């Protein structure tokens, strides 16, 4: 069993964007999250990989990129401070689709049991 390179405490938020809800299976989301916390950054370039490794101990932003079984590209982003992690499609980056008010909170503060 791999030892996680960082953890997501119970009081931190994990958000599943609306696009991720529509295009990814729960198994793909969970797989991406486990790979992300284990420091398996997926399909990122060498510069992003080095930045992730640097940011681990500094609680900086972490970014992973994966491809689902049907070829859908998706990202797992942990924001600086590690207060919030978002699973989203690349096209949703910078939109409010990854916001807690529109996405589905999987874990942490304000968790809802039903998608928005």
What oligomerization state is this entry in?
single chain
What best-fitting shape do the alpha-carbon axes yield? globular
Q: What percentage of residues falls in helices of 4 or more residues?
A: 25-40%
Strand content: 15-25%
Radius of gyration: 13 Å
Count of all domains: 1
Overview of the molecule:
There is one protein chain. This protein has one domain. The chain has 116 residues and is of the alpha+beta class. It has three helices and five strands; from the N terminus they run E-H-H-H-E-E-E-E. The chain is 25% helix and 22% strand. The protein has helices spanning 18-23, 26-37, 46-56; strands at residues 13-16, 62-67, 73-78, 84-88, 104-107. The chain has a five-stranded mixed sheet with strand order 2-3-4-1-5.
What are the SSEs and their pairings?
Blueprint (H helix, E strand, L loop, with lengths): L12 E4 L1 H6 L2 H12 L8 H11 L5 E6 L5 E6 L5 E5 L15 E4 L9
Parallel strand pairs: 1-4
Antiparallel strand pairs: 1-5, 2-3, 3-4
């Amino acid at each position: 069993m791999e030892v996680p390179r960082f953890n997501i405490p119970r009081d931190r938020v994990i958000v599943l964007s609306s696009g991720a809800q529509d295009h990814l299976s729960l198994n793909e989301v969970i797989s991406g999250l486990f790979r992300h916390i284990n420091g398996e950054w997926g399909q990122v370039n060498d510069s992003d990989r080095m930045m992730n490794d640097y940011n681990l101990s500094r609680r900086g932003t972490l970014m992973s990129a994966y491809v689902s079984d049907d070829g859908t590209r998706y990202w797992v982003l942990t924001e600086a401070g590690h207060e919030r992690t978002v699973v989203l499609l690349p096209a949703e980056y910078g939109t409010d689709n990854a916001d807690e008010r529109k996405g589905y909170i999987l874990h942490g503060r304000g968790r809802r049991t039903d998608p928005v």
